[in-house]
Amino acid sequence: MNNAELQRIKQRYNIVGNCEALNHILDVALQVAPTDLSVLIVGESGVGKEIIPRVIHDNSPRKREKYFAINCGSIPEGTIDSELFGHVKGSYTGAINDSPGYFGVANKGTLFLDEVGELPLATQARLLRVLETGEYIPVGGTEIRKTDVRIVAATNVNIRQAISEGRFREDLYYRLNSIPIQMPALRERGEDIVLLFRLFAMQMAEKYHMERVTLTDEAKHMLMRYKWPGNVRQLKNITEQISVLSQERIITPQILSRFIPQDQETTQLAVIKNNSDHSFENEREILYKILFELRGNVNDMRREMSQLKKQMEDVKTSPSPAITPIQPIQPINPISPILEDAEAEEYIEPTPEQENLNLNDLSRQMLEKALERNNGNRKKAAQELGISDRTLYRRLKQYGLMLVFFISTLFMSSCYTFNGASIDYNKTKTIQIADFPLRTSYVWGPMASIFNNQLKDQYANHTKLIQVKRNGDLQISGEIVRYEQRNKSVSSEGYSAQTELSMTVNVRFTNNAKHDEDFERQFTATSTYETTQSLNAVQEELVTQMVKEITDQIFNATVANW
């Protein structure tokens, strides 16, 4: 690309700088623009990654079509699929109309997916299919739709590290990375820093009708030596501060040092040095270690309790020792009385201990006793208390007993063991748990994500099996096939008093080492709520309860059959 063309691009998009890396990036953007190849832009936050997709779109055959810039990190996980791929009417609460989504609206155009590294794994799978086939299915729909969209993505995440930690799909990375573009950090652009400072100072002077600030040669060198962890965004903020707050218009290093942070800046993540051989890659591994240590403590406590019980039984069965006869009491010589002045003391009658009549405290005590008597089984505890599962769950949260409930299940539950006692770890080491898609006519958006996360956590918390993405010794897959509500009971006045919400999951269990143990089964859970309540208000709580019950059933089936 000749120099005239390069300057034309810079003027059109207000790009300031002459460093070789910046010029190379613009050259690559113009070369790739006429094609439909996907582009992945990688760089630190604040380096100006959002300019390159606009350059590519405006110089491509799609320049007359629509262009959308989407910040994937700012869209909640429960709604991002609907935003990108659209939804059908009634697919979830609040879906009153069909929506084509960005992929439908931007057909023939360009989509810029900023912060693509923040996408949930389920959304990454959908995006991969669009990139490979140009096809997608709206949330809650069954019809396959076609789209022709050019994808330009950007991220400030270390994708290689995210892949190793299981937070980003490797196959999606190679699809997006057809044309890689590495944006240089501001500290690598040399004299461009001074040019940008001059531009921002001039903009402030024109906007607020003030004299423009200028830098001395020493101040310029000081700017170029600074690390700029916030890149261009930070430089602009500091220039604006100097323009407004500085009384002098010629900026020296002494003045500049008052606005530039003097602490040791770094653009790298902190490295924790440890002399031990073991290191934690993420928080989940730390949690696993704590849980396994807790399991050991529980086993030690059970062993000590068994020994103590045995000692008590031995004491009961052992013969009583012979009783020594009591010696006769010798008479005591009378003591001569000593007359002294007696002092009267006030007698205060001890007050009996006041009984606690606080209803909240009594209710909390009853919950704790019910859970203890039923070995942490929430459903049995609710039946004994004469309340619904949902009411018990709400009161556990109200009184802060969720953690107590979790710990009690570790101590008392006979349903689970942390080491998966019925699983032969010499033969079975890995498990592959696929994401369960929604195959229901009525869909609540976050349900699939809640179920998939809970199911994977179930096996991570209660077994030593290593979860892998493919070729696991054991494999669990399936789909959510039913999610519906119906009237459960009718009041004396003739109207519906309670509504039952039900959820059914179809699960396929595959033992890749021994296929004669393969089986398929459906699991169902139900929950009720008062008809006077809005489903929107209780839906998350009810779905969470049903998901917990179904994943418990799936885990029990795994341990029982394998």
From TrEMBL:
<dbReference type="InterPro" id="IPR058031">
    <property type="entry name" value="AAA_lid_NorR"/>
</dbReference>
<dbReference type="InterPro" id="IPR003593">
    <property type="entry name" value="AAA+_ATPase"/>
</dbReference>
<keyword id="KW-0812">Transmembrane</keyword>
<protein>
    <submittedName>
        <fullName>Regulatory protein, Fis family</fullName>
    </submittedName>
</protein>
<keyword id="KW-0238">DNA-binding</keyword>
<dbReference type="InterPro" id="IPR025662">
    <property type="entry name" value="Sigma_54_int_dom_ATP-bd_1"/>
</dbReference>
<keyword id="KW-0472">Membrane</keyword>
<dbReference type="Pfam" id="PF25601">
    <property type="entry name" value="AAA_lid_14"/>
</dbReference>
<keyword id="KW-0804">Transcription</keyword>
<dbReference type="GO" id="GO:0043165">
    <property type="term" value="P:Gram-negative-bacterium-type cell outer membrane assembly"/>
</dbReference>
<keyword id="KW-0805">Transcription regulation</keyword>
<dbReference type="InterPro" id="IPR025943">
    <property type="entry name" value="Sigma_54_int_dom_ATP-bd_2"/>
</dbReference>
<dbReference type="InterPro" id="IPR009057">
    <property type="entry name" value="Homeodomain-like_sf"/>
</dbReference>
<dbReference type="GO" id="GO:0019867">
    <property type="term" value="C:outer membrane"/>
</dbReference>
<keyword id="KW-0175">Coiled coil</keyword>
<dbReference type="Pfam" id="PF00158">
    <property type="entry name" value="Sigma54_activat"/>
</dbReference>
<dbReference type="InterPro" id="IPR027417">
    <property type="entry name" value="P-loop_NTPase"/>
</dbReference>
<feature type="transmembrane region" description="Helical">
    <location>
        <begin position="399"/>
        <end position="419"/>
    </location>
</feature>
<dbReference type="Pfam" id="PF04390">
    <property type="entry name" value="LptE"/>
</dbReference>
<keyword id="KW-0547">Nucleotide-binding</keyword>
<feature type="coiled-coil region">
    <location>
        <begin position="291"/>
        <end position="318"/>
    </location>
</feature>
<dbReference type="InterPro" id="IPR002078">
    <property type="entry name" value="Sigma_54_int"/>
</dbReference>
<dbReference type="GO" id="GO:0005524">
    <property type="term" value="F:ATP binding"/>
</dbReference>
<dbReference type="GO" id="GO:0043565">
    <property type="term" value="F:sequence-specific DNA binding"/>
</dbReference>
<dbReference type="Pfam" id="PF02954">
    <property type="entry name" value="HTH_8"/>
</dbReference>
<dbReference type="GO" id="GO:0006355">
    <property type="term" value="P:regulation of DNA-templated transcription"/>
</dbReference>
<dbReference type="InterPro" id="IPR002197">
    <property type="entry name" value="HTH_Fis"/>
</dbReference>
<feature type="domain" description="Sigma-54 factor interaction">
    <location>
        <begin position="15"/>
        <end position="244"/>
    </location>
</feature>
<keyword id="KW-0067">ATP-binding</keyword>
<dbReference type="InterPro" id="IPR007485">
    <property type="entry name" value="LPS_assembly_LptE"/>
</dbReference>
<keyword id="KW-1133">Transmembrane helix</keyword>
<dbReference type="InterPro" id="IPR025944">
    <property type="entry name" value="Sigma_54_int_dom_CS"/>
</dbReference>
